[in-house]
Amino acid sequence: MVSTVQLLPPITSLAAEQLQEWLSRRGQPAFRARQLRAWLARGAGSFEEMHDLPAGLRSELAGAFRLSSLEPVLESVADRGLTTKLLYGLDGGYTVEAVTMRYPRRTTLCISSQVGCPIGCPFCATGQGPFGRGLRAHEILDQALDAARRLSAEGRRLSHVVFMGMGEPMANYSAVVESVRLIAEEELLGISPRRIVVSTAGLVPRIAQLATEKLSVTLAISLHAARDELRDELVPINRRYPLAELIAASGDFARQTRRRVSYEWVVLAGVNDSDRDADELGRLLDPYLSHVNLIPWNPVEDSPFQGPTPDSLARFAKRIQERGLNVTVRDTRGREADAACGQLRARVQKATA
Ligand code: SAH
Ligand code: SF4
């Protein structure tokens, strides 16, 4: 854990109306809030640089707020600079991480929604560590603002956000939904919810609730097994919400939002990559409503699991395809940066233990 002194409240923790009110109490015109938020979106490093705000206001802001709730602790780089991972300290002495992945035509940020994760999947570094707390909406937004700030220095724009970092987004529902709205806000990052992926281990009631939010986010379900007996082990929340309920809820989501659902499948050699697994998956999913993403397991220290060989991965993907499903094999971006779910944090904790 990183020790943080109790600091000023972050400016991003104020809702739009609260910021407006704070400014108008100081006799500022209504457009100041917009100017200030534009600076946040543009990635200002200090209140001082917001040169179209009056000097007195800038120093008053600096005396009352922090720019971000996050304190960068460690950065690691992989794929010749195309992947960067940041570990941040947040209030309460906790740490979370976010990974930026640069592609030719898009830049995707993988963000965290919780410190640790209460679901406890055995193959996942986050699930094996201790659970801390859910992040607040502005702590999620600040990950995206910080990434956007760093990217703008490279002449890049953040285009996509995936909730595939630490934590189970649906176990921190209201903060996650609020953060999606903030990230999508034109005055802030303006990233369309269609380009935001919320990944879940399968909290069925929350999936149903998300379908009613009028928020066209992309839903990803971390499936990893197509029979209850195996999924009970790999994704323990399956004991509470078994496959039949999960698939019904995600099918409803697809129909209500008219958007295909992604099904994530972390490929674990000898555990969930047999012909039988592919055939079961083929029977479980409706090809019109689904897309399967195969993710070769990223090694976690001291873990008994193993990733697939390229051959067995290709064979498994082919078999799924032959069952009529759309399937993509995801790249293993950021392996050297410890990019998979919670691994950077796990390493730092180990090193500082
Ligand atoms: N808790 C949510 C979102 C965060 S995990 C969920 O489980 O969906 C994001 C994705 O990373 C999940 O599909 C998860 O199964 C996968 N993942 C976790 N550990 C991994 C590892 N070591 N290698 C590859 N993928 C991993
Ligand atoms: Fe939590 Fe997702 Fe990791 Fe499972 S895979 S422990 S749900 S973060």
Structural summary, described in words:
- With 353 residues, this protein is an alpha/beta fold.
- It has two domains: 11-64, DNA polymerase, domain 1, CATH 1.10.150; 71-352, Aldolase class I (TIM Barrel), CATH 3.20.20.
- The protein is 36% helix and 17% strand.
- The chain is elongated.
- The model has no long low-confidence stretch (mean pLDDT 92).
- Residues 117, 123-124, 164, 168, 199-201, 222, 264, 266, 295, 297-298, 300, 340-341 line the site of S-adenosyl-L-homocysteine.
Number of helices: 12
Number of domains: 2
> Quick one: CATH class of the largest domain?
Alpha Beta
Task: Please tell me what the overall shape is.
Answer: elongated
CATH topology of the largest domain: TIM Barrel
Unique ligands: S-adenosyl-L-homocysteine, iron/sulfur cluster
Structural topology:
Elements: H1 16-25, H2 31-42, H3 55-64, E1 71-78, E2 83-90, E3 94-102, E4 107-110, H4 125-128, H5 137-152, E5 160-163, H6 173-184, E6 196-200, H7 204-211, E7 218-222, H8 228-234, H9 243-257, E8 261-267, H10 275-284, E9 290-296, H11 310-322, E10 327-329, H12 343-352
Parallel strand pairs: 4-5, 5-6, 6-7, 7-8, 8-9, 9-10
Antiparallel strand pairs: 1-2, 2-3, 3-4
The structure holds S-adenosyl-L-homocysteine and iron/sulfur cluster.
